[in-house]
Design goal:
Layout: E1 17-18, E2 48-50, H1 57-65, E3 71-81, E4 85-95, H2 99-120, E5 126-127, E6 136-142, E7 149-158, E8 161-170, H3 177-195
Antiparallel strand pairs: 1-3, 2-3, 3-4, 4-8, 5-6, 6-7, 7-8
């Protein structure tokens, strides 16, 4: 693991995972392949890019408990430069068979992220304004403290796809909030293009 912290790593490149028991979603509808929708190495040129064949339990368990079936793919990338510092980008794309199921996945993902953050007892998160990347979204930032670590996350539902983008910037002196928001928007635009119509 690149940074030694499991909670910062939503990893895996082009790996498909069943969220529920069924290999395809209910009602016979085809579930899109999320591995075609995640950010790729070409989206993060020169970055270290890792793969891992699992979805973090804090997301997987509540989705399974809700009886949702679908597919998921994840990725994780990290870069470092003297000017920028350490920048980590990770994300998940989840696909299901209908917009109604995707609305449930979106709500569960938001709740799971909230519960996870509360467990970590990190600084407060504040909602930020970003362009609309789908039918529903939530964007928020954890401003940097004196240690110089800023975090931002975006959860989006686009039709039958739900995606989570997580960005961590570490640099001293600490970066301004506007910089982490700018990074979030930059990678969100790339992720939006990959997801397409969802």
């Amino acid at each position: 693991m690149l940074d030694g912290t499991r909670h910062m790593k939503l990893a895996a490149a082009a790996i498909v995972l069943l969220l529920g028991i069924a290999a395809a979603a209910t009602a016979g509808a085809a579930v899109k392949d999320p591995s075609a929708m995640i950010l790729r190495q070409s989206d993060l040129p020169g970055w270290t890019y890792e793969a891992e064949a699992d979805l973090d339990d804090y997301l997987k368990k509540p989705l399974q408990a809700a009886g949702l079936s679908g597919r998921a793919a994840q990725y994780y990338g990290v870069s470092f430069s003297q000017q920028k510092g350490s920048l980590k980008v990770s994300g998940v794309v989840l696909t299901v068979s209908s917009p109604a199921q995707a609305r449930k996945v979106f709500a569960i993902t938001k709740n799971a992220r909230d519960a996870f953050v509360r467990k970590l007892r990190t600084r407060d998160w504040m909602t930020v304004s970003v362009p609309s990347y789908g039918n529903e979204y939530r964007a928020r930032v954890s401003p940097p403290g004196n240690e110089g670590i800023a975090s931002a996350e975006l959860i989006v539902r686009k039709n039958t796809a739900v995606w989570l983008l997580y960005v961590v910037l570490e640099r001293r002196p600490k970066p301004p909030v506007a910089e982490i928001v700018s990074d979030l928007k930059r990678f969100a635009a790339k992720q939006q293009r990959r997801v397409g119509t969802g």
